[in-house]
């Protein structure tokens, strides 16, 4: 089959009223667009709708996409299929006015068989409708946000997703590669064909080959199973992600009827409570990051380079595993994880049959779950990076008999489709415990509200009422100190016993207090921390290291995301939202946009928490300087959620705060840290694991150089310095690559910073910067990491945040793209990117 991109030539608009056609306005409002495309992120946010808070205060709406394409006459004797990798949500696909396919889930890959609705030798029209509502607890985006392909094949062909590869036997000398190839015959006659399979290494050398005849009756399919031997195989692993290629060809009477190329890895995987997770016989502890599907300033648009860049940065930050929260990830992200050595836990859904939002996927789950499981497994099967299928996240019905039955059905369906991976489920004890467990929290919430009201506070809290109305995340925020005791209760033990029994690995959301308990209660259980608080990583990682039955930790979150706004915020007593509310809510009010809980912000910049985690993981020997914002020194904190980090950045440029007090945290695994200002020793303080890897200092701000020196057993083990920015503010614009591919899959990321002549960051000199493009490129997104910004990601002028902004450029044709950046008081600067034909760019995408 020939697969081509189908992303160009589309137009879109907000879904019009059905009566517009009758009024003669059916063709109004269309705008040209290149897919993948997020129709929601370009909309103006509005804080007047509290129901929009979960999705970052973006409006919900319906969207319509259309494209005209020519179908040659010779396609009458071929099969034409459209592949949609993701449409959010309730997709309906029409061909020449007739409904061809629909899909409820917004994250499932699906195919549209087109032959019976096509017109040959003339233009055809495809139209796609989608709508997003109050249907998740995060920012979803809207429209055709993942790629579309057109697949054209003969009447006899390899089935779509029809090559499945496993590696059942692996030792030092030999690996057996088992290849199952499904051949479909849609012709009117019986055909006998030869199917040849080649295993090829990264250099193009053929390592193994097998060929066999296959007879297929008309309208039937046949599966050929071949076992090929690879001598002295190179294995795929986290540190050495070696990929092989399987080349499949189908021929008859000397004519090649079809061919397909499939990438895969040779690797083994086992798990048990004594040796943990082992890949290729070696124990691997999962340094995991939960991630959402959006790409920050791009919104939900899933462009290949953005997915690869995200994996690159997460890998650099010390993570070796990703959990997709809470939906199947894109094909592009899986490709990047294969290539870079990142393990994946792919998750099916956030809900089953009980809703968490007004119009969420629970409305459709009962009818669609089997199809969605098939789509997820078909997408993942040949990717060596995928080690887990998670069948759900914090499912409300998990502790009851109905949930238990459905759980088993889901798990067994996954195993029937793919028995080579591990099945898990991210279980939250609050949901499993049900109303009996939540009632004390609701009562405590009411008492706390009454006490604050009696103290003279005005207004009403965001979450109130009985157990049935208490938001679980709000409960976890307010009563964090009681959670370990609640989670180790006999009620949670009983309610989660069956939920865990059908899993290969038990997924624990915020249940780290049960790790030691469940080693005794359930000695055969293997546990993974599917979701944990970022501030607990030092304690949790010690548990992971010391507990063979606990195979890893996934923090919430590795990468910041749109929606669930402000769940990681810190509120000070003088903040406007604090003064206006009796009790702080779980989410931030408008204009909060991002969750602000990621180790890495929405532009891809690593925050202090990321370096702390790298030190805890034992991957960084140098200390790290995190400086608290001096303008907030001594101010009471009203709210710091359990997803918050400290309000600090790594900078020693604080104009206007000279000789004023300032707090500095130094993260280090060393025994002791010394702090120096301009070469003068301020103090020494203990660090290391016993002190939660943090040495805290207070001094007064003095411009110049701030240095931290780490010592173990009296010997220096590393140092880090920050220098104050001085003099005029300059612009710097640096592209992540100078050569990119001129197609719909690649991007250039241009980092814009405010610096001095020596390159030191002017983080207190924020200002509006503008970008202008010349050449074959378009601005795909422009913004900062400011979690409260009211600016639009498609404006050509944006305000920096802590001295930084990011512009993302999408090529439109081959040629030189020049990005000119200007700002008041700064000399203009340029970044140049060359868009080149495929195969000439700097690196894979």
UniProtKB/TrEMBL annotation:
Hydrolase found in the keyword field: yes
Glycoside hydrolase family 2 immunoglobulin-like beta-sandwich domain location: 159-267
Gene Ontology molecular function terms on file: hydrolase activity, hydrolyzing O-glycosyl compounds
Stretches assigned to the Glycoside hydrolase family 2 catalytic domain: 277-425
Keywords: Glycosidase, Hydrolase
Highest taxon above the source species: Bacteria
Boundaries of every DUF4982 domain copy: 660-717
Domain (Glycoside hydrolase family) ranges: 731-830
SUPFAM superfamilies per record: (Trans)glycosidases (SSF51445), beta-Galactosidase/glucuronidase domain (SSF49303), Galactose-binding domain-like (SSF49785), Invasin/intimin cell-adhesion fragments (SSF49373)
Pfam families for the chain: DUF4982 (PF16355), Glyco_hydro2_C5 (PF18565), Glyco_hydro_2 (PF00703), Glyco_hydro_2_C (PF02836)
Gene Ontology BP terms: carbohydrate metabolic process
InterPro entries: Beta-gal/glucu_dom_sf, DUF4982, Galactose-bd-like_sf, GH, GH2_Domain-Containing, Glyco_hydro2_dom5, Glyco_hydro_2, Glyco_hydro_2_cat
Keyword Secreted among record annotations: no
Similarity annotation: Belongs to the glycosyl hydrolase 2 family.
Name this polypeptide is given: DUF4982 domain-containing protein
Organism in which the protein naturally occurs: Frankia nepalensis
């Amino acid at each position: 089959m020939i697969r081509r991109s189908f992303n160009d030539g589309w137009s879109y608009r907000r879904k019009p009223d059905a009566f517009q056609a009758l009024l003669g306005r059916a063709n109004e409002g269309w705008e040209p667009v290149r897919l993948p495309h997020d129709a929601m992120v370009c909309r103006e946010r509005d804080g007047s709708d509290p129901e929009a808070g979960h999705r970052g205060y973006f409006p919900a709406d319906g969207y319509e996409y259309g494209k005209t394409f020519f179908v040659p006459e010779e396609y009458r004797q071929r099969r034409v299929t459209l592949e949609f990798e993701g449409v959010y949500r309730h997709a309906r696909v029409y061909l020449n006015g007739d409904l061809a396919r629909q899909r409820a889930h917004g994250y499932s890959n699906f195919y549209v068989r087109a032959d019976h609705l096509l017109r040959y030798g003339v233009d055809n029209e495809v139209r796609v409708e989608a709508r997003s509502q109050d249907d998740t607890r995060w920012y979803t985006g809207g429209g055709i946000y993942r790629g579309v392909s057109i697949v054209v094949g003969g009447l006899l062909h390899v089935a779509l997703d029809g090559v499945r590869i496993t590696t059942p036997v692996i030792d030092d000398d030999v690996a057996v590669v088992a290849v199952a190839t499904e051949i479909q015959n849609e012709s009117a006659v019986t055909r006998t064909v030869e199917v040849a399979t080649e295993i090829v290494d990264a250099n193009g050398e053929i390592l193994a080959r097998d060929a066999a005849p296959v007879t297929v009756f008309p309208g039937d399919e046949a599966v050929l199973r071949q076992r090929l031997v690879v001598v002295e195989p190179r294995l795929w692993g986290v540190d050495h992600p070696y990929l092989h290629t399987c080349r499949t060809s189908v021929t008859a009477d000397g004519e090649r009827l079809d061919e397909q190329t499939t990438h895969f890895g040779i690797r083994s995987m086992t798990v048990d409570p004594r040796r943990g997770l082992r890949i290729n016989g070696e124990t691997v502890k999962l340094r995991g990051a939960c991630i959402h599907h959006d790409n920050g300033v791009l919104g939900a648009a899933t462009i290949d380079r953005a997915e690869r860049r995200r994996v690159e940065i997460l890998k650099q930050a010390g993570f070796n595993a990703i959990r997709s929260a809470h939906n199947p990830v894109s094909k592009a992200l899986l490709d990047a994880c294969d290539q870079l050595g990142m393990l994946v836990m792919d998750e099916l859904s956030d809900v089953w049959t009980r809703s968490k939002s007004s119009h969420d996927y629970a409305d459709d789950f009962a009818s669609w779950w089997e199809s969605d499981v098939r789509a997820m497994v078909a997408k993942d099967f040949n990717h060596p990076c995928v080690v887990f299928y998670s069948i759900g996240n914090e499912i409300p019905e998990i502790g009851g008999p109905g949930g238990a039955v459905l759980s088993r059905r889901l798990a067994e369906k996954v195993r029937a489709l793919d028995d080579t991976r591990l099945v898990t489920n991210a279980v939250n004890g609050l949901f499993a415990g049900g109303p009996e467990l939540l009632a004390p929290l609701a009562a405590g919430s009411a008492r706390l509200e009454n006490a604050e009201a009696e103290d003279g506070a005005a207004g009403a809290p965001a979450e109130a009422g009985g157990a049935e109305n208490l938001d679980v995340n709000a409960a976890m925020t307010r009563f964090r100190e009681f959670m370990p005791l609640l989670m180790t209760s006999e009620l949670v033990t009983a309610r989660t016993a069956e939920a865990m029994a059908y899993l290969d690995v038990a997924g624990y959301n915020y249940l780290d207090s049960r790790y030691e308990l469940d080693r005794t209660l359930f000695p055969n259980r293997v546990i993974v921390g599917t979701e944990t608080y970022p501030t607990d990583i030092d304690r949790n990682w010690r548990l992971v290291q010391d507990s063979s039955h606990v195979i890893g930790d996934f923090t919430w979150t590795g990468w910041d995301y749109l929606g669930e706004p402000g769940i990681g915020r810190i509120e000070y007593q003088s903040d406007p939202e604090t003064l206006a509310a009796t009790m702080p809510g779980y989410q931030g009010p408008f204009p909060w946009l991002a969750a602000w809980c990621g180790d890495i912000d929405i532009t891809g910049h690593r925050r202090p928490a990321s370096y702390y985690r790298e030190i805890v993981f034992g991957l960084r020997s140098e200390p790290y300087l995190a400086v608290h914002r001096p303008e907030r020194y001594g101010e009471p904190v009203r709210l710091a959620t359990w997803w918050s980090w400290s309000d600090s950045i790594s900078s020693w440029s604080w104009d206007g705060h000279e000789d004023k007090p300032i707090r500095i945290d130094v993260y280090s695994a060393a025994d002791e840290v010394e702090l120096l200002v301009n070469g003068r020793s301020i103090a020494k303080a203990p660090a290391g694991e016993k002190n939660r890897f943090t040495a805290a200092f207070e001094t007064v701000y003095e411009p110049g150089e701030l240095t931290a020196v780490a010592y173990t057993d009296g010997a220096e083990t590393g140092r880090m310095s920050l220098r104050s920015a001085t003099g005029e503010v300059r612009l710097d614009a640096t592209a992540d690559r100078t050569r990119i591919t001129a197609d719909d899959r690649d991007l250039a990321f241009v980092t814009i910073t405010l610096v001095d002549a020596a390159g030191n960051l002017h983080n207190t000199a924020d200002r509006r910067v503008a970008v202008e493009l010349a050449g074959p490129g378009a601005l795909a997104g422009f913004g900062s990491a400011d979690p409260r910004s009211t600016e639009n990601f498609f404006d050509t002028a944006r305000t920096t945040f802590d001295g930084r902004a990011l512009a993302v450029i999408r090529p439109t044709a081959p040629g030189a793209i020049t990005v000119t950046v200007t700002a008041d008081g700064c000399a203009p600067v340029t970044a140049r990117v060359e868009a080149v034909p495929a195969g000439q760019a700097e690196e894979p995408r």
